[in-house]
Design brief:
Distance between the termini: 44 Å
Strand content: 15-25%
Number of strands: 7
Number of helices: 9
Radius of gyration: 18 Å
Oligomer: single chain
Structural class: alpha/beta
Order of helices and strands: HHHEHEHEHEHEHHEE
Strand order of the largest sheet: 3-2-1-4-5-7-6
Helix content: 25-40%
Largest sheet: 7 strands, mixed
C-alpha cells in the first residue's frame, strides 16, 4: 500500500526568498488537508510503497529535472477545480516530471489529460512517473514544441477525433502563451472553459518595471508574461484574474482565464 504524500520531500528552490511564517502555514495546512492518499488513483502492485506524488518528485530530482513543479497546495487546488467544474479533458503545456498531471488525474477517474512537453528527457521521466501511478491510459504525453503540437490537436478536435478540452494548465514557455491561448480557444468547450497559467507573479517581478528597469528592455520572460496579461485584459472573449500566492516556493501567483 502506498504511503500518504510526503510533504518533507521538496527539492531545494529559492530558499533566500522564503518566509518562515509562509513555510509554517504551508506545513500545517499540508498536514491536515493534503496528507491522505490521492483519490481516483490506484496503485496495483504491493511492491510500490511510495505514493505517486512523492515518487514523481524524488525521481524528477534524481533525474536532474529542475525543481519547478507546482507546489502541493496548488496541485490540489487544480485537482479540486477540475472536480468542481466536472472537467473530463485537460490540456497541459509543460509536463516536466508529471507531478501536476498526477494531481489533475486525481480529480476524477474519468478525467483524461493531454500533456505537451518539449524536452524528450523530461517526457521520459514523466511517462515513468505516470506509469508508476497507474495512469498511462489517462495521461497522454506528446513530445514537441507546443507551437507545433497545438494546431495538430486543434485539427483533430475539429474533425471529431478528440474531445474538446474543458481546462488547460500552462506551465511552459511564456513567449508562446498568447498563441497557446488562441489555439485553446479553438478547441475548448466554449463558455466556461478555463486556463490556469503558473508562475506569473514570480517574486513580484510582474509589477510594472521602474524607469531604470525599462531601460534594460522588455525582452525577458517577465516582459512576455506582462504582454500576455495585458493581452488577456484586452481580449473580450475571456475574463482573467491573478491570484497571488505564498508558500514553500516563495512569493508567486497564477493567472486564471475563463472563456466568456
Amino acid at each position: 500500500m502506498s504511503t500518504p504524500y510526503n510533504h518533507n520531500f521538496i527539492p531545494p528552490t529559492h530558499a533566500s526568498l522564503h518566509n518562515p511564517l509562509w513555510t509554517a502555514v504551508e506545513a500545517y495546512t499540508t498536514k491536515h488537508l493534503l496528507s491522505s492518499p490521492l483519490p481516483n488513483i490506484t496503485i496495483s502492485s504491493s511492491e510500490k510503497d511510495e505514493d505517486p506524488l512523492t515518487h514523481a518528485l524524488r525521481t524528477s530530482h534524481a533525474s536532474s529535472l529542475p525543481p519547478i513543479s507546482c507546489y502541493p497546495s496548488q496541485g490540489k487546488y487544480l485537482s479540486l477545480q477540475a472536480r468542481l467544474l466536472n472537467v473530463t479533458h485537460v490540456l497541459e503545456i509543460g509536463t516536466l516530471g508529471g507531478y501536476s498531471s498526477i494531481w489533475l488525474a486525481s480529480a476524477s477517474s474519468h478525467l483524461k489529460i493531454v500533456s505537451v512537453e518539449i524536452d524528450p528527457h523530461h517526457a521520459a521521466v514523466a511517462r515513468a512517473n505516470v506509469a508508476y501511478a497507474g495512469l498511462s491510459e489517462r495521461v497522454e504525453i506528446i513530445v514537441g514544441d507546443a507551437g507545433d503540437v497545438l494546431p495538430v490537436l486543434k485539427g483533430e478536435v475539429e474533425r471529431g477525433e478528440r474531445e474538446r478540452f474543458g481546462m488547460a494548465f500552462f506551465d511552459a514557455d511564456e513567449f508562446g502563451y498568447v498563441g497557446y491561448l488562441e489555439e485553446f480557444l479553438g478547441m475548448c468547450i466554449g463558455r466556461g472553459g478555463v486556463v490556469y497559467v503558473d508562475n506569473v507573479v514570480w517574486h513580484g517581478e510582474l509589477a510594472p518595471p521602474t524607469e531604470k528597469e525599462e531601460g534594460e528592455g522588455e525582452g525577458g520572460r517577465m516582459g512576455a508574461v506582462r504582454r500576455f496579461v495585458e493581452h488577456v485584459g484586452r481580449d473580450e472573449r475571456v475574463e482573467g484574474v491573478i491570484i497571488q500566492t505564498v508558500g514553500d516556493k516563495g512569493y508567486d501567483g497564477f493567472l486564471m482565464v475563463v472563456v466568456n
